[in-house]
Amino acid sequence: MEQPVAFFNQTIRDVHLCYNIIEKQALDLIKTLKDFRFYILHSHTIAYVPNADVKDFLMQTDRREE
């Protein structure tokens, strides 16, 4: 059985409070991956997301770069 080795906890503040639930879940996933990047950098990592909308949101291209 696999067990977690660490936990990530963060308080959402300021502009992030205005995000909808999909954006908040995507933000949490991104911040967690950045925080644990040292541990997952050279390993195969599977991130389970709460629903398909979060996956779709993360797969979008950044429109500001166009």
Number of helices: 3
Strand content: under 5%
Number of domains: 1
Poorly predicted ranges: none
User: What's the pLDDT, averaged over the residues?
Assistant: 77
Inertia-based shape: globular
| Euclidean distance between termini CA atoms | 45 Å
Could you say which structural class the secondary elements and strand pairing correspond to?
mainly alpha
Largest sheet: none
Describe the protein:
- This protein is mostly helical and 66 residues long.
- It has one domain (1-56).
- The protein is built from 3 helices and no strands.
- Helix 1 (21-35) packs across helix 3 (52-59).
- The longest helix is centred in the middle third of the chain and has 15 residues, at 21-35.
- The radius of gyration is 14 Å and the shape is globular.
- The model has no long low-confidence stretch (mean pLDDT 77).
Q: SSE layout and pairings?
A:
Elements: H1 21-35, H2 37-40, H3 52-59
Helix pairs in contact: 1-3
How would you concisely characterize the structure shown here?
Helix content is 41%, strand content 0%.
Q: Notable features of this structure?
A:
globular, mainly alpha, 66 residues
